[in-house]
């Protein structure tokens, strides 16, 4: 999905947040947010039927996390009835990439666009050695926890993505020896394109942002999704064959194709949405979705019947005859939050690096509240993972007895 940036609706500044959430949210970002909102208003006013907003940002740094969540809260205040949809790049697990993969990576330069502030480019050298970590920001757990605290309250749909999962797809599935940020961004862009397909094209069965939210979010706080795409191809690749609907279905439910570092097999799906593109039979799509649920019933909660939403658009992506986008609301996403929470607690217990945040006007209580909210979120996912239809029945009976009394 290529985006042309129009100068009239582009905002750039000269400062940065220095990997500090507080700088992005309370000081540097707060000075810029009103100017950014003016640009947002101009775009919103030009819409005939504004459906919502879509924000792509990272949670590990200072700008995307701090200013990003500030912008989300301001937009939510001004447009409370519009859908807020984010593609949030989560901190990677800091797991070391396999030595065999690292040895394939020769010295090369990556250009990273610094989004949100000055239109400068940084050059980063990656050395080929036996231990390479995707993530290198020490205070990521602080920034991510403070951000999730905001996202829980102010977004309707959050698509969780992390760079390590994207690297794994590049190495293991696409067989790329030296993946660049362009390759990683390509994977994210095809997913973003798939999610917004029904807004841009007509189809046999449509699912816009609001329909997705209604069908995907059974409880208001549990709106963090994992996403996938099939068929996965590298940028500019012409070596592909047309896949059948069963093959697309198998690929998009494959744990190896998920763009977040958590395994759906470790949890259960509350809801799923699939968006197919290309010429295909609706009957065949429905049969495949039913087949997946029947064969893998233990991975779907039984107390939400028919919890797979399907959309079909006749127009395929450029270069493909058929494709499918996967969106899953799985309790396994708690793995991601648990990992961040453990890292947060380890540092916060010693008050490490805290002075950088309190120096920008933050209070320790904000950290405590964010940590508590993250732990509550994990508990809620675990609660619904363990819930059964029988539990629900007992709960209903108790309610009925209480009402009678």
UniProtKB/TrEMBL annotation:
Residues 388-405 have a biased composition (Acidic residues). Residues 386-405 are annotated as: Disordered. GO terms for molecular function: GTP binding; GTPase activity; structural constituent of cytoskeleton. GO terms for cellular component: microtubule. Signal peptide: none annotated. It comes from Amblyomma americanum (Lone star tick). Tubulin is the major constituent of microtubules, a cylinder consisting of laterally associated linear protofilaments composed of alpha- and beta-tubulin heterodimers. Microtubules grow by the addition of GTP-tubulin dimers to the microtubule end, where a stabilizing cap forms. Below the cap, tubulin dimers are in GDP-bound state, owing to GTPase activity of alpha-tubulin. It is found in: Cytoplasm, Cytoskeleton. PROSITE patterns: TUBULIN. Its cofactor is Mg(2+). Residues 205-342 form the Tubulin/FtsZ 2-layer sandwich domain. Dimer of alpha and beta chains. A typical microtubule is a hollow water-filled tube with an outer diameter of 25 nm and an inner diameter of 15 nM. Alpha-beta heterodimers associate head-to-tail to form protofilaments running lengthwise along the microtubule wall with the beta-tubulin subunit facing the microtubule plus end conferring a structural polarity. Microtubules usually have 13 protofilaments but different protofilament numbers can be found in some organisms and specialized cells. SMART domains: Tubulin (SM00864), Tubulin_C (SM00865). Belongs to the tubulin family. Residues 3-203 form the Tubulin/FtsZ GTPase domain. Keywords: Cytoplasm, Cytoskeleton, GTP-binding, Microtubule, Nucleotide-binding. It comes from the Eukaryota. This is Tubulin beta chain. InterPro entries: Beta_tubulin, Tub_FtsZ_C, Tubulin, Tubulin/FtsZ-like_C, Tubulin/FtsZ_2-layer-sand-dom, Tubulin/FtsZ_GTPase_sf, Tubulin_C, Tubulin_CS. GO terms for biological process: microtubule-based process.
């Amino acid at each position: 999905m290529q985006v042309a940036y129009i100068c009239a609706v582009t905002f750039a500044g000269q400062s940065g947040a220095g990997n500090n959430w507080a700088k992005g949210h309370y000081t540097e970002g707060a000075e810029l947010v009103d100017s950014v909102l003016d640009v947002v208003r101009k775009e919103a006013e030009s819409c005939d039927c504004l459906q919502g907003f879509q924000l792509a940002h990272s949670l590990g740094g200072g700008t995307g996390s701090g200013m990003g969540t500030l912008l989300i809260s301001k937009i939510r205040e001004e447009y409370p009835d519009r859908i807020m949809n984010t593609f949030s790049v989560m901190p990677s697990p800091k797991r070391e990439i396999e030595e065999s993969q690292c040895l394939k990576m020769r010295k090369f330069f990556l250009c990273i666009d610094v989004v949100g502030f000055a239109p400068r480019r940084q050059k980063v050298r990656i050395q080929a050695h036996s231990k390479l970590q995707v993530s290198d920001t020490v205070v990521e757990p602080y920034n991510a926890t403070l951000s999730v605290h905001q996202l829980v309250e102010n977004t309707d749909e959050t698509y969780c993505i992390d760079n390590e999962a994207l690297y794994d797809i590049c190495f293991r599935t696409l067989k790329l020896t030296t993946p660049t940020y362009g390759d990683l961004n390509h994977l994210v862009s095809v997913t973003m394109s798939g999610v917004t397909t029904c807004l841009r094209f007509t189809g046999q069965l449509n699912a816009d942002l609001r329909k997705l939210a209604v069908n995907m979010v059974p409880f208001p706080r549990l709106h963090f999704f994992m996403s996938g795409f099939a068929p996965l191809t590298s940028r500019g690749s012409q070596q592909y064959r047309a896949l059948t609907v069963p093959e697309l279905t198998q690929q998009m439910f494959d744990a190896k194709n998920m763009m977040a570092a958590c395994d759906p097999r470790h949890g259960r799906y509350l809801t799923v949405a699939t968006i197919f593109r290309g010429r295909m039979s609706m009957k065949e799509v429905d049969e495949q979705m039913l087949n997946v649920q029947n064969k893998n019933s233990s991975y779907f909660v039984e107390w939400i019947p028919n919890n797979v939403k399907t959309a079909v658009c006749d127009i395929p992506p450029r270069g493909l005859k058929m494709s499918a986008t996967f969106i899953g609301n799985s309790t396994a996403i708690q793995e991601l939050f648990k990992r961040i929470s453990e890292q947060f607690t380890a540092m916060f217990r010693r008050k490490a690096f805290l002075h950088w945040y309190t120096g920008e006007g933050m209070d320790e209580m904000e950290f405590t509240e964010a940590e508590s909210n993250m732990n509550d979120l994990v508990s809620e996912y675990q609660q619904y993972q363990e819930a059964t239809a029988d539990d629900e029945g007992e709960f209903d009976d108790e309610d009925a007895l209480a009402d009678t009394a």
